[in-house]
Amino acid sequence: MKNKFTELVDIVKRLRKECPWDKEQTNDSIKAATVEEAYEVVEAIENKDFDELKKELGDLLLHVVFHSEIAEGDGKFTLEEVIDQLKEKLIRRHPHIFGDVVVKDADEVKRNWEQIKMTEGRTSLLEGVPENLPALHRAHRLQEKASKVGFDWEKKEDVWAKVIEEIKEMHESEKENNLARLEEEVGDVFFALVNYARYLKVNPESALRMTNKKFIKRFGYLEQKIIESGKTLAESSLQEMDKYWVECKRSEL
């Protein structure tokens, strides 16, 4: 394993020196591609496509090595320092494995993890939630972190009541003809729904991705059926499109 990893690093180093494209890249220029690779890993996991997952994990690993090689060339840090820092963090944040701390379950491990983070120089419990996360996922992580210190609803029913309350406020704000106010209220509805999903132990980002895929599948079905009928979507009525939508939906049962 060590030899294989060293071989990978050597390949990246050579590309960085000899390939015209690789030589021009910066941490900033490839950051979007890094995010894309991470999403492709998630997609392979959700599709349970392990051949694809193997490939995508390799692509993500390449980005870790490449970013580190770029940083080393700029005199910022080395790949060895990245690995050393990771090792130290894993040991420090798992005192129940590498120390004498006793925990009773996974929830206690998570609470300890957040407490240890606060001793590492962070000024807020929420500081470690990246701003660039998709908003739905970020809301979920913010709520999760706050719940670790007891800032949470006591009963699921109260969370649902909050969802209903926010929906009513959103409807009321429609009458004000104030787009900024309406946008705020729509955001509150999403935030409340994310919170309720958390109580149901459903990841809202994953749930919405599944719904998006379902929508694409059903819309693709109705598109194909309309094409087969000799029409275009513009020539079709809502009733025709809805007929094929329901037909596809029933076929999934």
Structure overview:
73% of the residues lie in helices and 0% in strands. By secondary structure, the chain is an all-alpha fold. It folds into 4 domains: 2-91, MazG-like (Helix Hairpins, Orthogonal Bundle); 93-123, no CATH class; 135-202, MazG-like (Helix Hairpins); 206-251. The protein is extended, with a radius of gyration of 24 Å. The chain starts with a helix and ends with a helix.
First CA to last CA: what distance?
46 Å
For this structure, what is the CATH class of the largest domain? Answer: Mainly Alpha
What would the principal axes of the Cα set say about the shape? extended
Strand content: under 5%
CATH fold-level name of the largest domain: Helix Hairpins
Number of helices: 12
Question: What is the helix/strand order?
Answer: HHHHHHHHHHHH
In a nutshell, what does this entry contain?
The chain is mainly α and 253 residues long.
Q: What features would you highlight for this structure?
A:
single chain, 253 residues, mainly alpha, 12 helices, Helix Hairpins, extended, 4 domains
Note the topology.
Layout: H1 2-18, H2 20-24, H3 31-46, H4 50-73, H5 79-92, H6 95-98, H7 106-118, H8 135-147, H9 156-173, H10 179-199, H11 204-228, H12 238-251
Helix pairs in contact: 1-4, 3-4, 8-10, 9-10, 11-12
